[in-house]
Amino acid sequence: MKKSVVGMLAVTAMTAAMGSAFAQDAKAPEMTAAEKETAKKIYFERCAGCHGVLRKGATGKNLEPHWSKKDKDGNVTEGGMLKLGQQRLEKIIGYGTDGGMVNFDDILTKEEITLISKYIQNTPDVPPEYSLKDTMDSWKLMVPVDKRPTKQMNKFNLKNIMSVTLRDTGEVALIDGDTKEIRSIVKTGYAVHISRLSASGRYVYVIGRDGRLSLIDLWMEKPEVVAEVKVGFDARSVDTSKFKGFEDKYAIAGSYWPPQYVIMDGDTLKPRKVVSTRGMTVDGEYHPEPRVASIVASFIKPEWVVNIKETGQILLVDYSDIENLKTTTIASAKFLHDGGWDATKRYFLVAANASNKIAAVDTKTGKLAALVDTAKIPHPGRGANFVHGKFGPVWTTGHLGADVITLISTPSDDKKNAKFKEYNWKVVQEIKHIGAGNLFVKTHPKSTHLWADAPMNPDTDIANSVAVYDIKGDFSKPKAVLNVAKDSGLPVTKAVKRAVHPEYSADGKEVWISLWGGKTDQSAIVVYDDATLKVKKVITDPKMITPTGKFNVYNTQHDIY
Ligand code: DHE
């Protein structure tokens, strides 16, 4: 993947902040100071997301030089990177594992794989903390509220704008869903993870892996960033206040490092409060790095659902009085990651991915509704809701670690669905997918299809493709498999082209899929007609470098999936 100067600078800021106090383990391979600096940067860019800065493991395994753990009966197991050793580590990193670790031989050079294998046999660096003052010092208000337009100044159909992450250039492209033209490309943080919309649909919030949060005003003639703030060194999630009376008032962003979340004013990003998430896991053990995974705004209460990865605690943060912040802490299962609402938007379903479970929280009662066992490493993105011919309303997840799509029955207030109550919170069906390595599933209330990708599958043909399932019946109809790489018309190169993240247009008639090129190859977005499954358009502007997530304004604003 292309590495931009912006990205390099942003990552260097994090690694520089981590200091150079690098403890050399007596048995660990020796490294020069320059090698350690390079390896530290690679670790942050490529490994920390899954394994944690302190390397205690989450979605990925524990990568400490030595570890030991006790099971319920007091039996101790020991392991660690020193035990695995240089050769074995190089193999694992280069070729991946059956356990879900992807191969890095097409992302890192041989020398980089050697370096990173040495690095993880040494004691982890501990990055510094980041205070409210640091957050405040980083805050920039480019366009104050009174200098912004009072009405929409452009003629775009804002509902159908797609906010597209250009991962490796530290940018977001705002693409007109109607005309497929790029309306604006804005500079953001490094490797933007997600875009979320304000309740009004006017503001787009984008968060980069380097913790930089940018606020884009869609009402400007050419939409631009009007405010930004750095909420931490490493971040993944953001949302806004969506409850009636609080529309566009607050924003919240969660950090991976330091493990904390920041509450800000919604229209300026002025920081108001920083709250640490360090504490006890659901097993009653202290964890020094409980990272903030997905965050979602409730529509039925002035609350955010904040999912804490390592501890497995789901926080319901009440923002009606942020000076006297009230939080409900709901114990679920460890390694919370991504998730989405059920069709009624009362229950939030989140993957406890390395625990192979889906946790469902009832935001009306503030209690855990269910913990559902699933196949290996569920990864729903936001999931997909539809009414199954036999089992009624279901929410769907794919899996990184299994070749199935799982359907979980969800409750409904509609009397005609009363007969499905007996299935609620059960896995009612597992559908055979094209392979493991799925990241995202998607449907739309106006569609009869369910789309699922498999970009992390080691097989090139599978990583190139998406499957489309007919949701009208009982899934006995064979799925359609679309080879997005072939459909893009891009030349075949050595690098694996990965088809990732289906996203619907606002009217539910088109599905957009990103196609990641390799390090230097052209990427594309392939737009399909959802009814005919035929290609409608291939977007391949040279400025479109490594597009990943695409967020339709209307669907994101209203949590439609
Ligand atoms: Fe993501 C969602 C974390 C890797 C693309 N990703 C999320 C969320 C989290 C998360 C916590 C939920 C945010 C929310 O809803 O508030 N992702 C992580 C990681 O920790 C991980 C595994 C490793 C890392 O270093 O970041 C990771 N993610 C990736 C990728 O490699 C992807 C495919 C491309 C990229 O960004 O480099 C990727 N993640 C996405 C996307 C979403 C997402 C597109 C939003 C899905 C949606 O439809 O809302």
Q: Strands of the biggest beta sheet: in what spatial order?
A: 3-10-9-8-7
Rounded Rg = 22 Å
Tell me the number of strands.
37
How far apart lie the N and C ends? 29 Å
Task: Walk me through what this model shows.
With 561 residues, this protein is mainly β. It has 8 helices and 37 strands. The strands form 10 sheets. The protein has a 5-stranded antiparallel β-sheet. Strands 6-5-4-37 form a 4-stranded antiparallel β-sheet. A 4-stranded antiparallel β-sheet has the order 11-12-13-14. A hairpin with a 5-residue loop joins strand 35 and strand 36 (535-539). It starts with a helix and ends with a helix. Bound molecules: heme D.
Write a concise keyword list for the protein shown above.
561 residues, single chain, disordered N terminus, five-stranded antiparallel beta sheet, binds heme D, 38% strand, 8 helices, mainly beta, four-stranded antiparallel beta sheet, globular
How is the secondary structure organized here?
Layout: H1 5-17, H2 33-51, E1 67-70, E2 76-79, H3 81-95, H4 110-119, H5 132-138, E3 140-141, E4 161-166, E5 171-176, E6 182-187, E7 192-197, E8 203-208, E9 212-217, E10 224-230, E11 234-240, E12 250-257, E13 260-265, E14 271-276, E15 279-280, E16 286-287, E17 292-297, E18 303-308, E19 313-318, E20 326-331, E21 336-341, E22 347-352, E23 357-362, E24 367-373, E25 378-388, E26 392-399, E27 404-409, E28 427-432, E29 441-442, E30 449-453, H6 460-463, E31 465-470, E32 480-483, H7 484-488, E33 498-504, E34 510-516, E35 524-529, E36 535-539, E37 547-552, H8 553-557
The chain binds heme D.
